[in-house]
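Inputs:
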Amino acid sequence: MAFSVTAKAPSSTANLGPGFDVFGLALDAFFDEITLTKKKHGIKIITSDLVPTDPKKNTAGLVALHMIKKFKIKGGIEIKIRKGVPAGFGMGSSAASAAATAVAFNHLFRLNLDANTLVECAGVGEMASAGSIHYDNVSASVLGGFVIVRTNPLDVIKIEPPSDLRLCVAVPKLDVPPKKTEVSRSVLPRKITLADSVVNLSNAAAIVAGFVQKDSNLIGTSIRDVIVEPARQHLIPGFSAVKKNALRAGALGVTISGAGPSVIAFATKKSDMQKIAKSMKRGFASARTDCTVLICKPSNGAKARRTT
Ligand code: HSE
């Protein structure tokens, strides 16, 4: 029987407000599963989910093509995809497939890659949906926990989140455009003021301090972004009502999850998560938008196991 490896990778939220393209947090809300099997030649994608099956247009396919070339692998590969992370909602769906593929590939060919190389390989998959490479979601999905991404050269720092951190994610039922991330990146300002950069930098630094000191309160109250959120919020019907409601219901901080349109509230084990969840649902309802609300925790990173 052919040798197969299956990897499971978590959803993630990127940016956490002021950390645009730099911060990521793995979430146990959803998971993608990728099974790789060695084949004589070619790349074949098998899935019953609504994703492209042309390897050059598919997140997992792009990662596999990149790794085959980079590590001079002889022969082909079959990629079985099982999506659990909803695509196009700011929950790191493409990143979860990319991370699972990189981790499964590493295991299948016994490459023994370090964290930065795995993240670099997984990042290639983001081209399929974002039109450019960004590493915040893939880093979180590969490594788990909270991550800080530095580029040129790529260097990812992981910090274990506090155990009492809780999140509430409202995923609106909206028709998202095909290249949603590309669209939501196109509305961002090319230039920002020094004053805005100071506000974001101070809050980003406080978020890092919150993770280092295991202080969920400091993390939550530092989720404040005066640059990206104001530029994108018009893309999310009801955003200000969702945010206002969640803060009133006891959330410590609320922002757009990644490139949206999901909205994420930061809280702690002591918060009334059901109350926050209901308040967010009401916020979206005020804009005639239905949503699914998930209460979740930070997750571990992608894990691979041999399946045959
Ligand atoms: N940092 C990226 C963005 C995440 O906000 O565009 C996209 O998933």
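The mean pLDDT is 95. Flag for discussion at group meeting.
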